[in-house]
User: Fold this.
Amino acid sequence: MEAESALITRWQELLSSYNTVAAHLERALQDGHGLTLSDFETLDRLVTRDCEKRRMQELAAAMYLSQSALSRTVARLEKQGLVVRSHCVDDRRGIFVELTEAGRLRHAEARTTHLSVLADRLTPAQA
Amino acid sequence: MEAESALITRWQELLSSYNTVAAHLERALQDGHGLTLSDFETLDRLVTRDCEKRRMQELAAAMYLSQSALSRTVARLEKQGLVVRSHCVDDRRGIFVELTEAGRLRHAEARTTHLSVLADRLTPAQA
DNA sequence: CTGCATTAAATGCGTCTGCATCAGATGCGT
DNA sequence: ACGCATCTGATGCAGACGCATTTAATGCAG
Assistant:
């Protein structure tokens, strides 16, 4: 069938694009800012959301990360002083995650690196 | 700048496509055939290459996997009896990796799963 | 109020990965 | 022949992930 090979070709292009960009991003963010790609993505979600909601769940839903992985990611960020966790007052099971000033700053720095890697490695039309 | 947001949008689409497909692939291959995605990719490379060459290096180059990860992947496959490692006669540093019949069979079975997941999850034009 | 199912997040555990290093094989210059 | 730089693949180690389980807070039924 013709469709099969087309499918495989598209998948291989996707793999290639993703792996190239992700590998460079991971390295650049780690070397330059001490952040995992997941760390950065998490900060990024927090920057663009100033509303007050039960974060952990919300974040997990917005990211391709398991609940446990997100929990540990936030723990990492907290240990670096980039976010603060606080219990929800009305439902003490929920956890608020909030950026600190340091977190906002770190994100701003890392964002530059992030963009430049994308500009360098993300092919214009994953051809 | 306009280009920045376009770049970010394309990256997010790439992330989304990749993560969706990869997660489903990983799960389906593991549950149905006891194979990691890397395992399958490795078998796949071997099926389509019947020539005789120093494989480890060749494989590593063809895959988005570090040398050490490939080494362990091949070790996993060998433990399952899907490939055989043998020293190169002329340069005993090199290692030949060869599919066994079991390996060929496993790959054929897994390939069906692989294709069906791609058909289900790989969006036609990563829109 | 008590008991039990449910939900949120944390954690134990095993797996896969990359980096750095190691051990063995080559092979080239002297 | 010897020694040293180089190359190939394996391995120690630490980090991140997912799954399953645990702990704590809710809340609904009786």
Q: What stands out?
A: The mean pLDDT of chain B is 91.
